Each structure stands twice: as structure tokens, then as C-alpha cells.
Amino acid sequence: MHTAVIDTHLHLYPNYDLAKAFNQLLSSSADFGPEVTRIACLAERHDCHYFQSIAQGDMQVSGFTLLNSNEAELTLKRDKDQLSLTLLPGRQVITQENIEVLALACAQDVADGQPALDVIYQVNQLNGVPVVAWSPGKWFGVRGELVKKLITELKPQDFMLGDTTLRPYGWGTPKIMQQAQAKGFGVIAGSDPLPFAGEESWLGTYYTVADAEQVYSPNELLHAMKQNTQGVQWKNTGKRTHVFNLFNRLRKNAASKKRQ
User: What are the respective helix, strand and coil percentages of the chain, to the nearest 5?
Assistant: First the structure.
């Protein structure tokens, strides 16, 4: 059995300390041995292109060496202990309806402002993995009805759902997510850090542990999970935020946006 630890919802922002961010990702998986595959799925905002900058050697991360890179993935090695971390490219898309769809394992840009259904279709056409990501308040009302419609009209192989650290303890699994799982849609977990300094400490804290009977590349593994391929199973684990911390994080995020 081959095991991978995957943060499926990773943002990198200009006010982050990248060395701290990548060290945190590896520290979060310290309970796993060096033999597991450590994967981070980027979901970059429209104005961020860290994957491209690191892959092309335009940006170095202190304490890490770039082992290899191509359009599909890049691998960094931490110098002090030789642990490896594979990054997959991806985009964060804010749809016309103001829900968040991630385009994981997708190197191409996907424009904001399109209908969610079109975004899911486009990401699939680009051979990426679309993920409809949960976010505080965004699955209620009209937007909640939209997510229900997507689950009803599309197939489990068309997209996955994303859970994040921003769903605090005590907040049960959203009913829509439960309904999706009952229909066969996969749910994966990620840190979803917010865009202000200090949020690097959340990277890798909530994640998916995938076990596969055969060896997959990180990119192939993510697609196998989306397709619910036989011999691949996973669970979501790690830590999420507490209610007080959630409000504090959201308050700091709002203050950061105001300063910008």
C-alpha cells in the first residue's frame, strides 16, 4: 500500500514567508514516516503565480532545493533532512455566483466571474480536478441551492467537494456535503489559509491521507481519487479551527483587506 498526505487547498500569498510555509507543511506531516508522499495542491489567486516562479527557478525557497519540475508538478527537498514535498499547480476561481471552485492539478489560468457550471466544465477540459470548496456562509441561501443543483445535475466523476480548516469544531458536516457523499461525490480536505501574514502556520494542518494499491504520480493520484478508482481510498484528518479562532482569523483577514 502506498500512502500520500495531501493538503488539497493551499494558497500562497505575497505576505507569506515561503520558507516558513513549506517548513510548516512538512512539520504538519511529521507523524508520518519519510517514505510517504507529501503533496500540496495549490489553488492560486488570479494575481499569484508561485508554482510557475518556483518551477522556472525565478524564486528560491530558503532551506529547500528544487529537485525537478514540469508543467504537471514540482518537487522540493528540504536540505536539513532530505524530506520531499511535491507541489501541484492549480487555481482558485471565484464564480459568477460568488462560490469558490478550485482548479487543482491545472497549470492553465481559469478566469473568475464565469458561471460555476462553466468553470467545472472548463477545468475538466483542461484535465484538471474541479473542487467546489466549502467556505463560511457561502453554501447558504441561493448559493447553497446552486451547490445542490450541481450535485443533482452532475456526476460524482465531474467534480469533488472540499472541506477546510475554516469549518470550526462544533460545526457538523454540512448537510449538502452529506448529501453529496451519499450520491458518491468525493470530499477532500485542505488548509485554505487566509491572505495575511501568520496564516502560514495553518498550512498542512487539515489534510487527506490517501492509500493506493499501486504507485501513482501525485497528479495521477488526484485524478484517481476524483474517478473513485478501485484500490484508492482516503480519509480526511488533522485539525480545524475553533470558533473563537475562526472569528479572529476572519477579523484579521478583513483588516488586512481594508489596509490593502
Answer: 30, 25, 45
